[in-house]
Structures are given as C-alpha cells and as structure tokens.
Amino acid sequence: MEVKIGVHNATRELVLESGQSPEEIERVVRDAMTDKEGLLDLTDERGRRLLVRTAHLTYVEIGEPVERRVGFGTV
C-alpha cells in the first residue's frame, strides 16, 4: 500500500510503501490524531520508521501505487 503524507511548510510530500492494509493505516493515523503526544508512527516495507508530529500534517493519502509507464509506444 502506498501512503503519501503532506506536511506543513514542506515542498514535497513524504511517500512510503507499507505492507499494512488501508484499514490498518487509517486506524494508525486516527489513533495518532487523538493521542496526546500527537505523533504519527508508520513503518515501511523495509522496516524503516517514519515519525511525523500530527500538528504538522496537512493530509494522508492511502492507496495502491500507480504503475508508471516509460517509453514512446502507443497504448
């Protein structure tokens, strides 16, 4: 599952691939938004952790990764 996270005052979004289901990721995001510490903690497929303060979140997009096509062939 691909997760894109928008952060205040950042020109680029954070993108990670997760082995979790969309429902699991949504639960983690919702729990972080209601937690008093306000810290979103996600782990990608390689085991790297991403920690973002929820006060700085602008959006979280959860979806399947898009396959990018390369070349000049017609479809």
UniProtKB/TrEMBL annotation:
Pfam families: DUF3107. This is DUF3107 domain-containing protein.
